[in-house]
Amino acid sequence: MSVSDATTALTEELAARDDMIVCEGVNKWFGDFQALDGIAAVIKEREVVVVLGPSGSGKSTWIRCINRLEAHQEGRIVVDGVELTNDLRNIEKIRSEVGMVFQQFNLFPHLTVLDNIMLAPIWVRKKPKDEAEELARSLLERVGIPEQAEKYPGQLSGGQQQRVAIARALAMEPRIMLFDEPTSALDPEMIKEVLDVMKELALSGMTMMVVTHEMGFAREVADRVIFMEDGQIVETGTPEHFFTNPQEERTKLFLSQIL
Amino acid sequence: MTSTMGDPAATPAATADLWAQEREPAQKPEEPSLSAGEWLGRNLFSSPVNSLLTVVFTLLVLLAGRGLLNFTFSEERVWRAVKTNMRFLFTHAYPQEQYARVWFCVGAVAVLSGLSIGLLAKTGRGISMKKLSMNLMAAGGAIAVGILLREPSATVDSEGLVVHREPGTALDDSFAGWIDANSLALLGLLLAANVALAVWFRYQGVYLRGGPEPRTAHGVLVLASAAVLIVQQYGEGEIVRESFGSAMADRAWWWLAAALLGAAGGALWFGLGDARRRNTFVPAMYVFFGAGALMVLSAWVYPWGHYAFLEGEFISEPGSTVAMTTKLPWTVMLVLLVASFEAGRALRATPAGRRLRVPLNLLWVLAPFVLYWAVLRDPDLDWDHVLSTDIPMALFFAAFGGLAVWFLAHPRIGEVGRVIAVALVGVAVLNWVAAFFGWYPMLQKARISFLLLAVVALLAHNFAGDRTHRMRLVVAWVAIMAVFHWLVTLVNSPSTVDTPTDALFGGFATTLTVATFTLLLAFPMGVLLALARTSKLPIFRVLATAYIEVFRGVPLITLLFFFVLIFNLFLPGGMSLTDIAGATIGFALFSAAYLAENIRGGLQAVRRGQYEASDAVGFSTVQRTLFIVLPQALRVSIPPLVGQVIATFKETSLLAVAGMFDFLRIADKVISAQSEFLGVKREGLLFVSFIYWIFAYNMSKHSQRIEKRLGVGER
Ligand SMILES: Nc1ncnc2c1ncn2[C@@H]1O[C@H](COP(=O)(O)OP(=O)(O)O)[C@@H](O)[C@H]1O
Ligand SMILES: [Mg+2]
To answer: Distance (Å, rounded) from C-alpha A27 to C-alpha B434?
Structure first.
């Protein structure tokens, strides 16, 4: 099967699925500086999309627009059928549908690991406490650190903290997970443990949008790779297509620097 | 009572960033303790400059200590004035026959403290035997030095007057007289010898070798200087004084205390080997209890004297122990404290203990109100009114509000909930507008209850949950209403405690009351102001900033004058503030501005990522603030917050200036106006400073412990 055949097959398969994230002509400015420039993309259910691009190209800004940590100024963003506007109710709804994992983990340092995970299910999802605890423990099991439940984040290694952060996001039972450079702040020996958790998550059918520089992860797990530069989407394609036969000069240049 | 603890679990849980990172329990290589001489050599006499600094500062400390001792124990000091006026100093006009209430309050605080410390405090390893024995020996040594340094007592004649020597009859040929006459020259000589020695040792390279010579030579010279300072006081001056022998005999009790402390310390030191001394720990509370027990014991055996001012009569019995009405209550207090501490410790690991934690903290908040309005004032309830109005109204708000909370905290209430909440807020505001224009009558507490309900309704969706959860919210609401209506009823009833002054009490009780209520009021205000000042909404920011800048710009004393003396003129007829209430409001408004700035500093220390993570998991602004931002911000601001608490505590002495009978005023003005103690001020002022210092010092020590536990400042 040639590369283009694979692309066609994937396109057809994807077309049959529901849209999870739709971006149309999204523009965003910080002051006079345009950080996003006409972003248009559709991410389907159960799709894993890796976003690549040089530093400052707007990857974080885009991904943060999707759960409204940043507000876009023009264009449409529709997440799971709900359009992101200033309406507070839509924002609350979308945030509980979309989990996010940050480069700096951002765990709550004054709470135990268990409380970090349980707090949102209890107060946002209104789960009874014992159910929330059960869920939290099973998620810790899933990310491979059930024995750390009673510790505080400061007592864990970076890799463990990031896995707790993933569990915390999953505890909201989101339909979409966003990852903004989840392994960039980790020591090399801890990167694998986090990527393994993410791979398992991808296999389980989660819709994922991942900003990362881990090319191995992109190759192995991504359904699609999006390359960004200067706030624009430069090229989109399957990993195979992307790494073996990029079309755009800028993509080639980027790949030659990074590989 | 001792326990060997090496378990790392005693290390408090640590958290990221601003919190201490957990360290491996440090396995320091065991280096043996230095001997006393080696310690002196290394720390005090290690170089010429070091040696001279040691010499000079030792002499300064001895001089200052001698001055303080001679001032404190001088025959001219009328300590009877303080002893006689203890009750005045602490509670002023609060009637003697109602004093059981005061002791009840002290007891309640003792029990709460004991339980809290036993149940909640992270006590760490405690005090090592080495430190304990060193402190005991140091205390014994300090007392012994004090005994020697203090001047001999003056001779008093049959009328109690100090006997002055006839001019020209001074006998200067005694040894002490000679030392006294030449003391300056002798001290100068000894100092010069020290300098010369230091220089000589320096050029001989003795310091570098680290040998024992410097500490021996300098030490002998320092001891000689101390001897000059001591013997000098037995020289013949203008006043006839007792001899060395009788002076030492007079101080037999102090010798006993010094000997007991020294012997206890020495027994510990020599009874245990170096390793066991260092690795055996006693809980710090037991040391505190031990000191407390010694003090209570001294009340039963030592002739402190019995002095009192009862029904206009001065009682003065110098030779006896203190009154039964003093020593018995204090003994009970100590027993209560120890018993509740042990109870707390026993409960600590049990589920019941864990369930007690939140109620215990709530009790601390509730205690000042209950103790002041219910216990000390013993309100005279009008039962007809209570049964016909107060109870029905409380029941109504409990039931109506309970239902509203049950309904509004339903997870799927949605828009309906917001509409109802906004409607309730509308009615609550209308009630206040109506009060202003006099449209319809309504009890003030009904208006306040309604406003509380409206606020709770507005926030309810943030705390929605399943049935048991909502049930808990309802119970909390009912409890709040019960306590609120009960307290308001108490406040509105006249007091049965009859005092000759406007205020219920004065003295230290006023100081504590104003300080406590100020903090209870100012703390929530400060948190709200800080949040408002950092809010996204400009109106909040502007208002909070204006408030903070205005109240930080106004001198506290003007606020006090305004609220204690002038404010009542602005109130509608029939309404008036008591002095204590006025002062508390003034203090609270002022402290809130400072607390707000401290908390704002803490808020700024919370990282942006924390806000983003809270938003990303879907918390509302209220939830984010309550669960994530404030807990972190308050932790960071603990040191400045405690600083502010101490400042408020000490600033209450300004109450005297505003004409209130606070602690300082009693010492300064009241005692010195009594016919028996006309003009006697210094004793009272010294005593008051001492009490202020004890409280402020303990607060600051406590804050250091909290800081250490939270690892604030450690990165
Ligand atoms: N809050 C902000 N204010 C101003 N400029 C910003 C802000 N956040 C990001 N930018 C700018 O927007 C551009 C895109 O940033 P970002 O999305 O973080 O890039 P990436 O994640 O791809 O490295 C950068 O040039 C950055 O300087
Ligand atoms: Mg980025």
So the answer is: 51
Mark which residues 597-616 of B lie under 8 Å from A by CB.
607, 609-610, 612-616
Under an 8 A CB cutoff, do B15 and A69 touch? no
| Distant-in-sequence, close-in-space partners of B294: CB < 8 Å, separation ≥ 6 | none
Per-residue burial over B156-189, b if 16 or more Cβ lie within 10 Å, else e, is eeeeeebeeeeeeeeeeeeebbebbeebeebbee
Contact A240, A234 (CB under 8 A): no
**Secondary structure of B400-418 as H, E, C letters:** HHHHHHHHHCCCCCHHHHH
Enumerate the domain spans of chain B.
36-76+174-250, 381-493, 506-707
DSSP assignment of B525-536 equals HHHHHHHHHT-S
**A96, B16: Cβ pair inside 8 Å?**
no
Contact in structure between A25 and A187 (CB atoms under 8 Å): no
Report whether A70 contacts A28 (CB < 8 A).
Answer: yes
| Cα gap A172→A101, rounded to integer Å | 13
**With bands split at pLDDT 50, 70 and 90, how would you rate the model's confidence at B169?**
low
Ligand nearest to the CA of A182: 2
Determine whether the shortest distance from the Cβ of A57 to ligand 1 is under 6 A: yes
Residue-wise pLDDT tens digits, B474-531: 999 999 999 999 999 998 888 888 888 888 898 999 999 999 999 999 999 999 999 9
The closest alpha carbon to B534, from B484, B605, B440, B586, belongs to B605
Which value, in Å, is the radius of gyration of the alpha carbons in chain A?
18
For A174, nearest residue in chain B (alpha carbons): B617
Q: What is the pLDDT of residues B397-410, one digit of tens each?
A: 999 999 999 999 99
Beta strands in A31-113 (DSSP E): 33-44, 48-52, 74-79, 82-83, 98-101
Q: Whose CA is nearest to atom 16 of ligand 1?
A: A58
CA dihedral B596, B602, B603, B605 (to 10 degrees): 150
Phi, psi of A83 (to 5 degrees): -85, 140
3-state SS assignment for residue A111:
coil
Q: Which amino acid is at B415?
A: E
Nearest CA to ligand 1 atom 14: A58
Atom in ligand 1 nearest the alpha carbon of residue A231 = 14
Chain centroid, CA B450 distance in Å: 37
Tokens 């010429």 found at: B48
Instruction: Give the span between the Cα atoms of B605 and B625, in whole angstroms.
Output: 14
Contact B609 A102 (CB under 8 A): yes
A61 lines ligand 1 (CB under 6 A): yes
The closest residue, in CA terms, to atom 21 on ligand 1 is: A60
The token pair at A28 is: 């965003």
Q: Which fold has domain B506-707?
A: MetI-like fold (1.10.3720)
Residue B595 has pLDDT above 70, yes or no: yes
| Segment A132-179, tens digit of pLDDT | 999 999 999 999 999 999 999 999 999 999 999 999 999 999 999 999
| Distance from C-alpha of B454 to C-alpha of B65, rounded to nearest angstrom | 62
Cα–Cα distance for residue pair A210/A158, rounded to 1 Å: 19
